[in-house]
């Protein structure tokens, strides 16, 4: 890149370096994931400090120097304040950022992925949707956008479109009836409603991803299968997910203690 370039992007990772600088991992639509040096971002007089926060979506003016993209100017477009005021939601948003970082590459167009991430954060921060729904929807759709979609058309063994007692093999990414189980994978149970929701997320209108609801048990299985599938397909865990789950467990335990008083 020669001269100055103006892009819009969201900070997936921010690492403090030297006395007041930050190195950012930014996801953009046209350039994919890029590394950006924000000099003096942590100083009190910095005019770009807000735009260098994790999950800040901004318009960035970049200039190239010795192979690095240097942040010259920045104007924030969305800071998702609803997340920053809730440590649990912020931890979930951080997981979304870490997961997105893991499945995107430099120099690859990422418009759909960027929109998907922004919509999920907006759903949590501004629409106040149930995190237990937003999280699996985000995971399932991100897997699909990055080439990891499960084969959900029907049973991989008997070809039934509506599998009997549906199970998802999260290792091999295939659906099957409980009675058709062949072994060798890791199966997660789904209800018919949870399977319908999965298909809706994979194949439905991306602008209406969150326009559905599930009963408690359906939501639990939909949620658990998404998390297991993501971990199995990427063959790794996520520090931010562990932190989010620990916070949720602590809140649940605190709520039960209050109830027992």
How many runs of DSSP E, i.e. beta strands?
8
Main-sheet strand order equals: 1-2-3-5-4
Q: SSE order in H/E notation?
A: EEEEEHHHHEEEHHH
Cα distance spanning the termini: 63 Å
Bin the strand percentage. Answer: 15-25%
Mean pLDDT across all residues, rounded?
93
* Radius of gyration of CA atoms, rounded to a whole number: 20 Å
Report the principal-axis shape. Answer: elongated
- Report the structural category: alpha+beta
Number of helices, where a helix is a run of at least 4 consecutive DSSP H or I residues: 7
Task: Summarize the structure in words.
This protein is an alpha+beta fold and 261 residues long. It is 40% helix and 23% strand. The chain has seven helices and eight strands; from the N terminus they run βββββααααβββααα. A five-stranded mixed beta barrel has the order 1-2-3-5-4. A three-stranded antiparallel sheet has the order 7-6-8, covered by helices on one side. Strand 2 (21-28) and strand 3 form a beta hairpin. Helix 2 (87-103) runs parallel beside helix 4 and helix 5 packs across helix 6.
